[in-house]
Amino acid sequence: MEDQEDWEALASFMNALEKEGFILLGGPLEGTNEVLLLIRATSADEIAERLSADSWSSRDMLRISRITPWTLRLGSLQDSAVHNDSSGER
């Protein structure tokens, strides 16, 4: 993925969405050219609108294939936000 055109711009865009709490988790699906994004939004339209602001969208390099509501029933999203510090402690 990192070798694709305008990778740095996409990475900056996605990192900014993650930093503001719109994207909670994301990463490539093994064995595919797809990426799964866990997003906190009020509607599918909000998701489409926010992602369309990326330069990859206008060049058809970023496509939404499906938006599916999800109900968390096990675990916590707060756990996924915990990052290791430089000492390896949580």
Brief summary of the model shown:
The chain is 33% helix and 12% strand. The protein is an alpha+beta fold.
Structural key phrases:
disordered C terminus; two-stranded antiparallel sheet; alpha+beta
Question: Could you explain the architecture of this structure?
Answer:
- With 90 residues, the protein is α+β, with helices and mostly antiparallel strands.
- Helix content is 33%, strand content 12%.
- The chain is built from four helices and two strands.
- Strands 1-2 form a two-stranded antiparallel ribbon.
- A hairpin with a 6-residue loop joins β1 (23-28) and β2.
- The radius of gyration is 14 Å and the shape is globular.
- The protein starts with 6 loop residues before the first helix and ends in a 10-residue tail after the last helix.
Spans where pLDDT lies below 50 across 5 or more residues: 81-90
Radius of gyration: 14 Å
Strand content: 5-15%
Shape descriptor reads: globular
What is the string of SSEs from the N terminus onward?
Answer: HEEHHH
How many alpha or pi helices?
4
Average predicted confidence as pLDDT: 81
Distance between the termini: 29 Å
**Count of strand segments:** 2
Helix coverage percent: 25-40%
Structural class, judged by helices and strands? alpha+beta
Write the layout of secondary structure elements.
Layout: H1 7-19, E1 23-28, E2 35-39, H2 44-52, H3 55-58, H4 77-80
Antiparallel strand pairs: 1-2
